[in-house]
Structures are given as C-alpha cells and as structure tokens.
Amino acid sequence: KQRALEEIRDLPACTPDGCTVSLLANIGLLSDIKVAHLHGAEGVGLYRTEFPFMTRSSLPTRQVQASVYRKVLEGFPDLPVHIRTLDIGGDKGLSYFPHPKEDNPFLGWRSMRLSLDREDILREQLAAILIASASGKCHLMFPMISGVDEVRRIKAILSQVKDELTREGRSFDPEIGFGVMVELPAAILVIDMLVKEVDYVSIGTNDLIQYTLACDRNNPRVKKWYDPYHPAVLHSIKKVADAAAGAGKPASLCGEMAGEPINAVLLMGLGLRCFSLSAPNIPRVKEAVRRVSLQKAREIGDRVLAMESAQSIREYLEAAQRELG
Ligand code: PEP
Ligand code: MG
Hey, which family's this protein in (predicted)? Predict the structure, then answer.
C-alpha cells in the first residue's frame, strides 16, 4: 500500500486525453502539512484558520497568528496556500469567546458576519496573513459570502490594513490573491457579479448543500435530505463553473464531496479543474482522474445535468464508477 502511494504521489493528475486537474489539500493543523505532502498535495486549497484560534485560550495576537501562518506557507514552498479567514459560529465555537445562544446558529452570527461585526478581529487576522504572505504564495479566502456588498467592504478594510503595514515598513505581498467561498444560494444567484470582484472562487459544498436544501449538515435525522446529488446542488456548481470560466477566473471546489473519485470525475465534467480535499483522499481521486478521459467526464456531466432525480443520478454514477473500475 505504501509503495502504491509513493508511486502515485509524484504523478500528475492528468487525464489520458491531456486535461490536468490540480489536487490541493484542506488543512487545519500544522501537523496536516506532513500528511498533505505524504499524499502528494499540490498546495493548500483551504487552510481553516479556526484551528489556531481553537487550540488557544485567548484570541491569538497578530504576531502569534503570523507565525503560525508563516509556518504553513513555509511548509509549501512555491506552492499556493489559500488562507481562509475565521469561520467560527455554527458548529464551531471558541471557549474564550462568548457566543450568544441562537435558535439557528447556522443562520446566525457566524463566519464572515462575525468578522465584519468584530472588525478588530478581522483587521488583526488580515494583518497577520499579510505579514506571513512575504513567505510564500499566499491567497486570501473569505467564507460565507452572500454578495458584492460584503466583498467591497472587505476590500476596503484590506486596503486600509495594507496601508497601515506599508506605513510601518512591513513587507508583504501587495498582490495577494483575493478569493471568496461560494457556499450560499445567494452567492450562486449573483455569481456573475461576484466573479467580477474577485481573483478566484472556491465552492464550499459542505455548506452549499446545507443551505441549498435547508438541511443541517450535522443532524443525522435529516441526513438523507443532505444530498450532493440533488439537481439543485449540481446545477449550482455548474453555474459557478460557467460564470468563472466566462470571466476568466479560476474556480475550485473544497467541500468533502470532491473526495469521492466518481464525484471528482463528475465535477470535472461540470467544468471544474481544481479540487481541495482531505489529503488522504488525494491518491484515489488522482487515480480516477488518470483513468478517465475528459470526454467521458463531460459525457457523465451532461447526462447528470439532464436528470431530474438525485436517486437516478446516484444509480447512474454507481454504474459509471463500476464501469471505470
Ligand atoms: C464547505 O462549507 O464546504 C467548506 C469547505 O468549509 P467548512 O467545511 O469549513 O464549512
Ligand atoms: Mg463552509
């Protein structure tokens, strides 16, 4: 097994007809860096910064954050690292940060909403990421974006933080990439406007499925309604891929969905060329990419988009999976 892993690790994720897909890792802890390399990750598509906040007993200062982010960037020399700003609330809390009790935490004060209301926390984090950006190929990523207003507000804050750092004589990457996560149905509906405002988008299917289908991602009682194959989810993904391609901006997908090989094939068929996934899933997804032609993936994508029921999509994909071996 170890030998098989080593063999595939350094091979490109390229289809027999020459379509290359990027496979990056989702990480949270510094110990994930090693795991990512072990599985051949081509960088980090999603670094969840909740972890450095969760493993401390008070809000980490800008210096503490910068040193953690720098370690991540130094762990991936010359490879892209997409650092996502704090995404707490919902199911993730901080022991030292009193969070109001909410009837609907996933519809409540979470993620970017919290960061925009607590601008002090956001500014410290942006400063820390910028300071670390001098050490690698760093990209900023903002979660739970609903539309253009939020993006413009974040940009205004970011530009003030950059000005401050410049005045302090700190070096940072002035061209740092600016991307947003697409995980709200609202973002899908205004995706043509959003892609114009950003350098790239990354689809977060864990939340996109939850919000599209109004189905709690952690509630086992409604698990059967939480379905990545619901046509609404797949058509949403297709809409993002098309909008990004139309605007000449990269689109990736960083939800758990991409960790399943047949799903990655389907997503390629819908037009995506970059996935960020839990690192141990990279080799098996790469194997599938190396075995299936882009032409076949597109055929699968087209067939699935024409289907009206999640159940028939599931059955069709199971058959396709068996056929691909
Ligand atoms: C997602 O929502 O798909 C995602 C990747 O982010 P998280 O799981 O951290 O919410
Ligand atoms: Mg999410």
Answer: Belongs to the PEP-utilizing enzyme family.
At a CB cut-off of 8 Å and minimum separation 6, what does 167 contact? none
How many CA within 13 A on the CB side of residue 248? 0
Alpha-carbon distance 7 to 286, whole Å? 12
Q: What is the dihedral of CA 316, 319, 320, 321, to 10 degrees?
A: 120
So what's the ipTM on this one? Answer: 0.99
Residue ranges lining ligand 1, Cβ < 6 Å: 46, 48, 87, 183, 204-207, 254-255
Quick one: CA torsion of 47, 14, 208, 90, rounded to 10 degrees? -20
Half-sphere exposure (Cβ direction) of 232: Cα atoms closer than 13 Å: 14
CA–centroid distance, residue 105 to ligand 1 (Å): 15
Give the model confidence (pLDDT) of 211-237 as tens digits: 999 999 999 999 999 999 999 999 999
Gyration radius (Cα) of the chain, Å: 19
pTM confidence score = 0.97
CA-CA distance, 172 to 169, in Å (whole number)? Answer: 10
DSSP 8-state class, residue 81: E
Q: How many whole angstroms separate alpha carbon 103 and alpha carbon 26?
A: 30
